[in-house]
Amino acid sequence: MAEPSTVARPYAEAAFRLAEGSNALGKWSAMVAALAQVADDKRVLAAIADPALSDAQAAGVFISILAGQLDGGAENFVRVLAENKRLELLPEIRTQFEALKNEREGVVEAEVVSAFELSAAQVADLTQRLEKKTGRKVRTMVQIDKELIGGVKVVIGDKVIDGSARGQLSALETALKA
Hints:
CATH superfamily of the largest domain: N-terminal domain of the delta subunit of the F1F0-ATP synthase
CATH class of the largest domain: Mainly Alpha
Number of strands: 4
Strand content: 5-15%
Structural class: alpha+beta
Strand order of the largest sheet: 2-1-3-4
Distance between the termini: 43 Å
CATH topology of the largest domain: Peroxidase, domain 1
Shape: elongated
Helix content: 55-70%
CATH architecture of the largest domain: Orthogonal Bundle
């Protein structure tokens, strides 16, 4: 069986083209996020897995839960997903849609893991430095991990900048063993 990311890719690309074509990337981002949130609900997944439920009824579950939040294009998108039995892929579709949107807008997401709570000024300074280093707009998400001991670890795509005390100690240990 194919990986969910592989199966979700054409749907994410189709949603992105629809959003881009209607000049509504932000609106579509919000709609796809809402759809993904509904698809993450175990009760919804159990309901749409019922073999007695038709494709139209499965789509109707999503459309009725998000009544007033979806436009006609998004409702049609949900119907296509239901017909192809792909509604459970909505969280992965959202991830890929956001990646396409970020690429289009020149935005990169940075995951910052810190040993301690960072102030707004520290986050702003770190974001500014990352923007200068990457040459792109950076959207920063901060998490706390007390096991780092001190410092921060930054993950941007497949690049890791480990400035944590734990990372420094690990590098020192490796150097001493060599």
